[in-house]
Amino acid sequence: MGEATREESTCIAQRLLAVAELYTRHQGALADMEWCLVDYCAATAADVSAVQNISHARAVGQVQFACALAYRLPAVAKVFVRGTIDFRMVSTIINRTDNVDDALMPAVDEAIARHCEKWMKLSRPKLRDRVDQWVAKFDPAGVRVPPKVEQNRYFDVDEAAPGMAFASGHLRAADGAALDARLEALAATVCEHDPRSRNQRRADAAGALSRLETALVCECGRQDCTAGASPADATAGSTVVIHVLAEQGTLDGSSDNPGYLRGFGILPAESVRAVAQTATLKPLTVPSGVRADPGYRPSVKTKEFLAWRDLTCRWPGCDKPVDNCDVDHTVAYPVGPTHPSNTKHYCRIHHLIKTFCGWNDQQLPDGTIVLTSPTGYTCTTEAHGAALFPTLATPTGDLDLPPADPDPARIAMMPRRKQTRAQDRRERINAERRERTELIAEQQRQHQAWLAANYKPPPF
């Protein structure tokens, strides 16, 4: 186990240092990208996400982490490569030294590298204290300041088990109290014979709240129910549209194949049939051998098919839903027509990377994409919707098109940033260093005030 643990740490270190080396090579191969929307970090992350099959956001974080390890903490990196410290420790060191002045960083790096092997058994809080101690010795203003709680507000609704969603968040206390009271009030609008538990009614009340309904539909099934809401009332206030894809057999009960709720994943057959009772049903046709749409923009029919066939961005590891994606021509228009065999979805960042950074893609009639990076790495992605519903993988027609020809000179047309990534980082660090300096000064003022009030010099 010990040997495997050390080998694991060594492999992680080697992977990260390879990412940092790839970043350096991108800087040498791609000119003047610092101010581009797809900068060196994003261009490197495109390779990383494709090779490791991870999301672009995770790849960007890995590039930044790798560069910090390789170029700000080379001494710690050497210890990491030996396998005597692990990723948990390295991530703590990188995070806690992020605000250290560049001129003082080599001394901090050497000091931590000399001692970090002895810290492996420490808990996370104790490890953080040891790193902060060395930062404070060399650069007191570089000690990290805890983030303000209010800055971490969020509210997410994510997919959970099939047919279910998971909601979580940090709200302002007043907003949380109002939401809690509203859910409680909605949950209380059913009669006493409703079979659901209080928690189940509150969960269902969240759906009613999202549809602007003023009451829950009671599920007691009694003729003498005293609750006021009826199924007809339940849809009266609805202003939100959701889209579900399912086979006809699932709807008519001849099949129990699940459906798909866009953005939340698989929806069990019984849930599909329940939703269908009050839904507008619309058949989805698979275009086959059709003529291309006139012009650059796809028709409503083509766009609808592409959305269900792809479901997400087609870049390896990217799960951005099609609602947040662009329709990309594999072979650029007008040489490449607006046709289902030549169009698919890329999120904006991957659309820009494909267009401006030398990537080449080929599209097969069933929607499969063969993507080749500027370094020669090739990967294949199938459309997520077509994988779940094989009918959507029906070939839409062979097109006799020339291969796409990436033009490196097009990078001059890349959208520009208002600030570089380095400027954003420096702004954050300067603000946090100022805050730490003010905290230190306030502590010193309080100490001096305490001495003035309590210290009595010894008599002579």
UniProtKB/TrEMBL annotation:
Biased composition (Basic and acidic residues): 421-436
Residue ranges constituting the DUF222 domain according to the UniProt record: 4-310
Annotated region described as Disordered, given as residue ranges: 416-436
The protein, known as: DUF222 domain-containing protein
Pfam families according to UniProt: DUF222
Highest taxon of the lineage: Bacteria
